[in-house]
Specification:
Largest sheet: 3 strands, antiparallel
Helix content: 40-55%
Oligomer: single chain
Shape: globular
Number of strands: 5
Distance between the termini: 13 Å
Order of helices and strands: EEEEHHHHHE
Radius of gyration: 19 Å
């Protein structure tokens, strides 16, 4: 199956037939998921760097990341299932079919914040200092995972709309996608 063509016409960069996934031992791994995982790792690196820069123990942030990522994934799935309950009410086992899609960033962030509160309470850390140090890692991970990941997955198709959309489109649109007839979004 052909992939999407991704073009950045205003800066002269074009990619043809970009696949959505790679197969490892017969198991499909979406590039989007790989980019999100890289975003998580970059976020941890950034939080550790910030901790070192401010005289804190960077291991605190690595330890938290293990719990934070786990509960963020659970929260992202729970949020998605709650707000798409009609799709799951007749087959509860589909709730655990994460490969079928369905994670919501809002649930992940909410769960990560709750995890951070509990973690700081249990470890006796200042919560505000903790999140102040960690938030740049969250932002970097978000930019990498959702910014770059959605471009590679061709999720960001469309055109700027609104009252000033046409004027903004002229200046800010730099990504253009062409979808092949054999590809579904």
């Amino acid at each position: 199956m052909k992939g999407a063509d991704i073009a950045f016409p205003n800066i002269g960069i074009y990619f043809s037939n970009v696949p959505k996934s790679v197969s490892v031992a017969g198991f499909q791994i979406a590039f989007y998921g790989i980019i999100i995982a890289c975003g998580m790792l970059l976020g941890i690196v950034m939080a550790r760097w910030n901790a070192k820069r401010t005289g804190q123990n960077p291991d605190i942030y690595t330890d938290f990341a293990l719990w934070g990522i786990l509960f963020a994934l659970i929260g992202a799935r729970a949020y998605y299932v709650i707000f798409s309950w009609d799709s799951y009410k007749d087959d509860f086992m589909q709730i655990f079919n994460i490969r079928g899609g369905g994670l919501a960033i809002y649930g992940g962030v909410i769960a990560a914040v709750i995890t951070a509160i509990v973690y700081c309470k249990r470890k006796n850390y200042n919560f505000l200092k903790f999140v102040d140090t960690a938030v740049t890692g969250l932002i970097l991970g978000h930019i990498n995972g959702l910014g770059i990941g959605t471009v590679l997955a061709a999720f960001t198709m469309g055109k700027v709309i609104g009252l000033i959309g046409d004027k903004m489109d002229k200046y800010f649109r730099f990504v253009n996608f062409t979808q092949h007839s054999s590809q579904t979004v």
